[in-house]
Amino acid sequence: MRGSDHGHGRDDRPLNAESAWRLTADRANECVLFFDFDGTLAPVADDPTAVRPVPRALSAIDALARVVRRVAIVSARPVDFLRDRLGAADVDLYGLYGLEHSHGSGPTVTEPAALPWVPAMADLADRARAELPAEILVEYKRLSVALHYRTAPELAGEVERWGNAEAERLGLRTQTGRMVLELKPPVDRDKGLVIGEAVASAGCAWYFGDDVSDLKAFAALRDRQERDPSFFGVCVAVANPETGQAVAGAADLTFDSPEALGDFLDDAAASVR
C-alpha cells in the first residue's frame, strides 16, 4: 500500500500521500520533515544494534535534505548511533527523545539537566543485567537504559514491574515502546517538545513515526496547525501489529512498512529534484 488516509485532518486535507506531497512540493523551502528511526526508517530487529535503515529511505533523505528547509531525525537512539547509520546526510539529529542533538555536521550537544544522571544510568544498566533474566537485552545509552523483551514477550510483566520499581526508587521517568521499557532522567524533553520548537517558524511539516512516543509529535503538529491555519502539517504512521490502532488511528496517512515508506520517499524526492 502506498499510503492511506485515516481522515483525522481538516475537511480540505488531501486524501492520499501523493496529493499531500504535491502540496508540500509547492512550499518545499518552508517545510521540515521529521522522522523517527526504528520501525519507521528501519525495520525493528531482535538485536537493536543490528538495525539498519531501508536503503531507499536513506538515499531519499539525502536527496530531500537538499530541497526542503530541513530534515530531522527524532529518535530514542543516541545521536552517535543515528549519525553512524545515516552517514553523511545533512540532517538534524535529536537523540534520546531530545536529550541530545546535533545540527548538520555540528557537535553533539547534551541537555545540561540530564548530565548529572549519567552515573545513575550506568549503575542502573549494571543492576538490570544482574537482576533481570538473561533473555532481556539491556541497552545502555548513557542518558537512558532500555529493557528489550522482544525475544521473550512472556517476560513483559516482570520487566515492567522491575522497571517501574527502579523508576520510583531513583526518581526516573519511563517510556513504553514496542517490546521495550525505557528509563530516563526526569528532564522535560520529549518528541512533542522537540517538534513544537522546531516548527515554530516553519510553514509546513511532516512527522513520520510508528510508536506511542510519536503521539506527542503528532500532537505538536496538530497544535501548530490549530494556532495557524496556514500551516500545513501531516502526521504519518508506519503501521505495525504491536501498536495497532494507537498510532495508526491518530495519523493522517499510513504506510505498511519502512520499505513502503522508502518507496514513497524516493518518489517524493525525485519529484522535486
Automatic annotation (TrEMBL):
UniProt keyword terms in alphabetical order: Hydrolase, Magnesium, Metal-binding
UniProt cross-references to InterPro entries, sorted A to Z: HAD-like_sf, HAD_sf, OTSB-like, Trehalose_PPase
Catalysed reaction equations from the record: alpha,alpha-trehalose 6-phosphate + H2O = alpha,alpha-trehalose + phosphate
Enzyme Commission code: 3.1.3.12
Enzyme class, first EC level, given as a word: hydrolase
Pathway in which this enzyme or protein is active: Glycan biosynthesis; trehalose biosynthesis
Keyword Hydrolase annotated: yes
An MF annotation (GO) of this entry: trehalose-phosphatase activity
Cofactor: Mg(2+)
Highest taxon listed in the record's lineage: Bacteria
GO biological process terms on file: trehalose biosynthetic process
Role summary: Removes the phosphate from trehalose 6-phosphate to produce free trehalose.
PANTHER family named in the record: TREHALOSE 6-PHOSPHATE PHOSPHATASE
Family: Belongs to the trehalose phosphatase family.
Protein name as annotated: Trehalose 6-phosphate phosphatase
Species in which this protein is naturally found: Asanoa ishikariensis
Phylogenetic classification of the source organism: Bacteria, Bacillati, Actinomycetota, Actinomycetes, Micromonosporales
